[in-house]
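Hi R.,

Here's the chain you asked about this morning:
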Amino acid sequence: MKTESAVAALAALAQDTRLAVYRLLVQQGPSGMAAGEIAAAVQTSPATLSFHLKELSHAGLVSSRQDGRFVFYAANFDAMNALIAYLTENCCAADCGSSCAPAVACKPVGAQRGARAAGKARRTRT
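And the predicted structure, written out as tokens:
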């Protein structure tokens, strides 16, 4: 993911209603939800929801599909995962080196230093 795309995605999510809509769509899964269901769930008017869905769509975070009279919206999971990967690309690189994977929580810096010192002490004794 390029920086410009990450900025657009984060800007789209940096609003209460849009964040609530996006989280709802992520929870719903790839099948998505009809616009009317989304509006009811987040308690917003259809016109306001349309504006927020447009912003999320322009950022590439949601997709839409027509099914009869209804428009269904779904989270773009590839975009979500790309954003998460972009944000965690170098997670803990200064403390963990290349052994830290984004899916693994980073240990506090103090715990890392203590473990390294203990390991060095054990190696020097043997």
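The chain has seven helices and three strands.

Let me know if you need anything else.
M.
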